[in-house]
Specification:
- The complex is a heterodimer of chains A (about 190) and B (about 425).
- Chain A is of the alpha/beta class.
- Chain A is built from six helices and seven strands, in the order E-H-H-E-H-E-H-E-E-E-E-H-H.
- Chain A has a seven-stranded mixed sheet.
- Chain B has about 425 residues and is of the alpha/beta class.
- Chain B is built from 15 helices and 19 strands.
- The relative contact order of chain B is 0.14.
- The chains are: A alpha/beta (about 190), B alpha/beta (about 425).
- At the A-B interface, helix 4 and helix 6 of A face helix 2, helix 5 and strand 6 of B.
- Bound molecules: iron/sulfur cluster.
- The site of iron/sulfur cluster has 13 residues of chain B, from helix 4 and helix 11.
Chain lengths: ~190, ~425
């Protein structure tokens, strides 16, 4: 996890479930094969209903036709982000697409854990609704140490919920690296 | 402390823990199945080495159940990976497909095989792993990375959840089942109403339920976003568990001074049969409000609604009658399936009752609960309107994105199968 994450924001609504993030039919690809894993990026967020894709206008594809990665770096979502199944492929797919952090009002807990323990992305919680304050395509800067999100395009800035105990796991790069650092598993 | 806090404290080697704290705990049982087992094994080998040993063979249950009776090659590849891993590590609790060991749906199998020991901790690579909490243990779903870490170390970190308490008072009327109670709760608090929290079920109506029915309450905790569902153990829990395992366990209880995030009290004698309308488990409606909705299919199965008690309930309604829509009966496990040929209602076996009613009896597995490959028993392919005893009705969950699923109890599902429209079980149950 970088101290500063800067890039374009992609904005989504409430209850984005794991099937919208990566539809079940795509779970067959290998997560390790360098060619096959790219397909997770290609199909990331491919089942978000078009009117919800890239708010406030919608109809803004996350991945351009034919591409494997996205031009966006941070997702700003609503409540209950990542609800549904326990598939770890969901945060993995977002990471493959180029997402480094999600800012949402709340998360489904298995998605939250998987994001942290796989070291895929930083799931920040915001105490106030932000998906109506940031527009898809706005340039944002996330200070992961200070826990602030700045909308560079508009100049507004907000305090996010501190990451707390999971910060150390994200800093280590995932739960295995963390466990090694802590001496829980031999190096 | 609540029972959830007390179990976590004990497994963290601490006297007390408080909600919000993160602790590393010892894991007693890890469960995985055919969908998430193979990637878990892959991560385990990558991180701990090709020759690494699992932390505790006795604590590992590998229960293939999701994509079993299909010609799909990817599905078969997954089973082969599990089989090879079980052989390589000489695992005592691998329930292989195609033989006498095969069980079926993992959450029911864990109960039948004695893994649900009160006071212990259980993690599974399946979001409905919260089911086991019905036996007074801490159980929840995790991803593959966490599962691989447990496989190598027997440890995992947990953030201690706050507990929401749901108290069911009064006597359950014969037309209601545990499914009606949990659909009522989810309808009231929403699909994220319990996110990060424990859901503790309590009250005389809960302890009047069989342990099987209690599992249905805890099974659907995840549909409200809950981390775990839990019920304090009682004599029924102890009898069920002791009959199935010789291993030691120490039951744990909620202390009188335990603090709860919130409490909701229901008088079950005043509740009505309910359904969750398409396409979310919190889209609650009393059956009386949607009665008459035309159906194409009825489905009785899954970890939520494929227990023997569900089939007994359905048989009470279907006996001597004929269904008018395609009706699928999918016993969760092979034990439940066998019991269809021995258990009787008014002198007739359940299997005979279902066959004579024109229902199709399937083999034990998850089957169409989660859609699955195109050749899956009971899967939807078009615009079918289904009434089902399963636990999720998001678009496409049973196969086709165009189909619509109403979640209901086995009583309501069976009553509806007879008329072809959503029907209140009170209209057909003879007293
Ligand atoms: S029966 Fe359905 S809900 Fe239960 S484990 Fe299988 S797929 Fe999941």
């Amino acid at each position: 996890m970088n101290d500063l994450i800067r890039g374009k924001a992609y904005v989504l609504g409430d209850h984005v479930d794991t099937d919208q993030i990566i539809p079940a039919q795509h779970l067959v690809y290998s997560l390790t094969d360098p060619e096959e894993r790219k397909l997770y990026g290609k199909y990331a967020l491919s089942s978000v209903p078009p009117e919800q894709a890239g708010l406030p206008e919608g109809h803004c594809p996350f991945i351009p036709e034919g591409a494997f990665t996205s031009e966006y770096t941070v997702i700003v979502g609503g409540g209950n982000f990542g609800c549904g199944s326990s598939r770890e492929h969901a945060p993995f797919a977002l990471r493959e697409a180029g997402i480094e952090a999600v800012v949402a009002e709340s998360y489904a807990r298995i998605f939250y854990r998987n994001s942290v323990d796989g070291g895929f992305l930083a799931p920040f919680e915001t105490p106030q609704k932000l998906n109506d304050k940031v527009r898809t395509g706005d340039e944002v800067e996330l200070d992961t140490k200070a826990g602030t999100l700045t909308n560079v395009t508009t100049g507004e800035s907000w305090a996010l919920q501190p990451l707390g105990d999971v910060a150390a796991i994200l800093e280590a790069g995932g739960v295995f690296e963390y466990a090694r650092q802590q001496g829980l598993i031999p190096t | 402390m609540t029972i959830t806090e007390a179990i976590l404290a004990q497994h963290a080697g601490r006297d007390r823990v408080s909600p919000g704290e993160t602790v590393w705990i010892d894991v007693d049982t890890l469960m995985t199945h055919d969908v998430c087992g193979p990637p878990t094994i892959e991560i385990f080998k990558r991180e701990f080495g090709e020759d690494a040993q699992v932390w505790d063979k006795e604590g590992l249950a590998i229960i293939p159940d999701h994509y079993i009776f299909t010609s799909d090659q990817h599905a078969h590849r997954n089973i082969q990976i599990l089989r090879a891993f079980a052989a390589e590590h000489d695992l005592p609790y691998y329930y292989d497909v195609g033989g006498d060991d095969y069980k079926g749906v993992c959450h029911m199998a864990l109960a039948e095989e004695g893994f649900n020991r009160p006071g212990t901790t259980l993690f599974g690579t399946d979001s409905h792993s919260c089911t086991s909490g019905a036996f007074g243990l801490f159980s929840t779903g995790i991803g593959n990375t966490d599962a691989a870490l447990i496989l190598g170390t027997g440890k995992i970190w947990v953030k201690v959840p706050e507990t929401m308490r749901f108290v069911f008072e009064g006597e359950l009327p014969p037309y209601l089942m545990a499914k009606d109670l949990i659909l009522a709760v989810i309808g009231d608090i929403g699909t994220d109403g319990a996110t990060y929290r424990a859901m503790e079920f309590d009250g005389e109506a809960v302890y009047d339920l069989s342990v099987e029915e209690r599992m249905t309450l805890c099974n659907m905790a995840i549909e409200a976003g809950g981390k775990n569902g839990i019920i304090q153990p009682d004599a029924k829990t102890m009898d069920y568990t002791r009959a199935r395992t010789d291993r030691d366990f120490t039951p744990v209880y909620t202390a009188p001074d335990a603090r709860f995030h919130s409490e909701r009290v229901y008088d079950v004698s005043t509740l009505e049969p309910v359904v969750a309308k398409p396409h979310a488990p919190d889209n609650k409606a009393p059956v009386s409000e949607v009665a008459g909705t035309k159906l194409d299919r009825a489905y009785i199965g899954s970890c939520t609604g494929g227990k023997l008690e569900d089939f007994v309930a359905a048989a009470r309604i279907l006996k001597g009658q004929e269904v008018v829509v395609d009706t699928y009966v999918v016993p969760a496990t092979t034990d439940v399936r066998k019991a269809l040929w021995t258990e009787k209602v008014d002198g007739e076996t359940l299997a005979d009752i279902f066959s004579n009613a024109g229902a199709k009896i399937g083999l034990s597995s998850c089957a169409a609960c989660l859609g699955g490959p195109p050749d899956t028993f009971g899967r939807t392919h078009g615009t079918e309107v289904v009434i089902s005893t399963t636990n999720r009705n998001y678009p496409g969950r049973m196969g086709s994105k165009q189909s619509a699923v109403y979640l209901a109890s086995a009583l309501t599902t069976a009553a509806s199968a007879l008329s072809g429209v959503i029907t209140d079980p009170r209209d057909v149950l003879v007293a």
